[in-house]
From TrEMBL, chain A:
Highest taxon listed in the record's lineage: Archaea
Family statement drawn from the similarity comment of this UniProt entry: Belongs to the SIMIBI class G3E GTPase family. ArgK/MeaB subfamily.
Record's protein name: Methylmalonyl Co-A mutase-associated GTPase MeaB
Keywords: Chaperone, GTP-binding, Hydrolase, Nucleotide-binding
UniProt domain AAA+ ATPase: residue ranges: 50-292
The keyword rRNA-binding is assigned to this record: no
GO molecular function: GTP binding; hydrolase activity
Chain segments annotated as coiled-coil in the UniProt record: none
Length: 354, 141
């Protein structure tokens, strides 16, 4: 591993050739943003697009890791290869982390066709690491049939997973709040499939009912107003009073019950995840999703690259502290400084486009 | 370490492994926590792992450091299996292998010959272990 220029093409070739070590090393380079990682990811891109990417999110302790273990095992029993990326939080103080999801992967020990990788969030919010999307590409290009992303134990608003996964699976524990929690925006809006895990616990039935009501309201806002006073109202009538035209082709989120510790319900969950993937393909939504994802990715890269260029400009002008001092002493103001710093970029753009 | 460095720089990744039938993992927990506080990313294997599982984890997680905690005295049978497993996946050369626990003096040399970088017995100051990792972790670029 001495000369980066000569080893990296090999790394991509080795990864495509199915070498585990190369896949592991590529993900490390992606995580560290090592020199040459961009070249690696761009070379992998042509080989991506075959894996079903499933995101698993939910509150800490909901059973995500245990469910992922059973999902991976069941996919393997069905003959599919599986890649797993499990993200855990990192310390805001030291950057260190204890990545504990691997302990739960008891059903897949010794099976190298389950490639399990722990990732630290490395300070980012939203439940994913910035490197997660690129790591998914590496697993996809390696030839994994299914890639599962397990997020950091999420609160109400960690919804980044929708940007990376094709199918989002939200885990809910029985008794995790009354029906007002179900009205809140955020994590409950992003699920394509809802899983009530620990379904053998008291209150599971009620949680399922509340989730189903929530989903029904999502697709038909008038449904919640149905109080029973006016007698039974059929679905057709409901649809007529709905604010939005119901989309005949829309995906109806499903609620599935599982007991991850015993594996109960996991087969049904995989069928539901498969149904969603099939719907994405048949309705063409998979391309819409990919298009939106790539658009966002291009924007992010462009922002990061221009920001890096402008950092150079700032350094050339004596550094950010010196500029801030000028503002502090009222010699100038932030807007003028920004105008001045961006001027070279603006000149180039003018030149290029006009 | 600044946020910038942390985001773009090299992050030391460690696997802390309990292998074989020994069920005492207080030491492994303490070292995991200390490594975390030193800014490393630590993957803990859990108890009673087979050598194959440790190899699988070390390869997939692409760790810089493999810390094996053994208090059962079975190091002479378990460590060679791990070493040869890592070799099989080309992961031996650049993984720093540490052994912690109860290892008789006579066995130390043998482990070091096998490719273990250091053996840390009871009473080793945590700071020494962390320092050793920082100084000896293999350069991979």
């Amino acid at each position: 591993m001495s000369d980066a220029a000569s080893t990296e093409p090999d790394l991509v070739a080795e990864l495509l050739d199915g070498k585990h070590r190369a896949l592991a090393r590529v993900i490390t380079k992606i995580e560290n943003r090592s020199p040459g990682y961009r070249d690696i990811v761009s070379r992998l891109h042509a080989h991506t697009g075959t894996a079903d990417v499933i995101g698993i999110t939910g509150s800490p302790g909901a059973g995500k890791s245990t469910l992922v273990d059973k999902l991976a095992k069941t996919y393997r029993d069905r003959g599919d290869t599986v890649g797993v990326i499990a993200v855990d939080p990192s310390s805001p103080y030291t950057g260190g982390a204890v990545l504990g999801d691997r302990i739960r992967m008891a059903s897949n020990v010794g099976d190298m066709d389950v490639f399990f990788r722990s990732m630290s969030a490395r300070g980012t919010l939203g439940g994913l690491s910035t490197a997660t999307a690129d790591a998914v590409k590496a697993l996809d290009a390696f030839g994994k049939d299914t890639v599962i992303i397990e997020t950091v134990g999420a609160g109400q608003n960690e919804v980044d997973i929708v940007k990376t996964a094709d199918t989002v699976c939200v885990l809910v524990q029985p008794g995790s709040g009354d029906d007002v929690q179900m009205l809140k925006a955020g994590i409950l809006e992003i699920g394509d499939v809802f899983v009530v895990n620990k379904a053998d616990m008291d209150g599971a039935e009620r949680t399922v009912a509340e989730l189903e009501e929530m989903i029904h309201m999502r697709e038909n806002p008038a449904a919640g107003l149905h109080t029973g006073h006016h007698g039974p109202v059929d679905d057709e009538e409901m649809a007529r009073v709905a604010v939005d035209e119901p989309d005949a082709e829309a995906w109806d989120p499903e609620v599935v019950q599982t007991v991850a510790t015993s594996g109960e319900g996991v087969d049904a969950l995989i069928d539901t995840l498969g149904a969603h993937a099939a719907w994405l393909r048949e309705s063409g939504r998979i391309d819409d999703k990919a298009r939106g994802r790539y658009a966002e990715e291009i924007r992010q890269l462009v922002r990061a690259d221009t920001a890096a260029l402008l950092e150079e400009v700032i350094d050339a002008r004596g550094g950010i502290d010196a500029l801030a001092d000028e503002v502090l002493t009222k010699e100038t103001d932030p807007y003028s400084v920004a105008d001045e710093l961006v001027a070279p970029v603006r000149d180039c753009v003018d030149e290029e486009l006009r | 370490m600044s946020t910038q460095e942390r985001e773009e720089g090299r992050q030391i990744r460690c696997l802390i492994a309990k292998v074989g039938l020994d069920g005492h993992d207080r030491g492994a927990h303490v070292i995991s926590r200390a490594f975390r506080d030193a800014g490393f990313e630590v993957i803990y294997s859990g108890l009673h792992r087979a050598p194959d599982e440790i190899v699988q984890a070390a390869v997939q997680e692409d760790v810089d450091v493999l810390g094996i905690s053994i208090l059962s005295g079975a190091h002479n049978t378990l460590i060679p299996k791990i070493v040869s497993g890592l070799q099989e996946y080309d992961a031996f050369e650049d993984t720093l292998i540490l052994v912690g626990g109860i290892v008789p003096d006579d066995d130390r040399e043998e482990l070091l010959d096998m490719g273990v970088a250091a053996v840390f017995g009871p009473g080793t100051p945590m700071a020494d272990t962390i320092e050793f990792v920082r100084e000896n972790v293999h350069d991979r670029e």
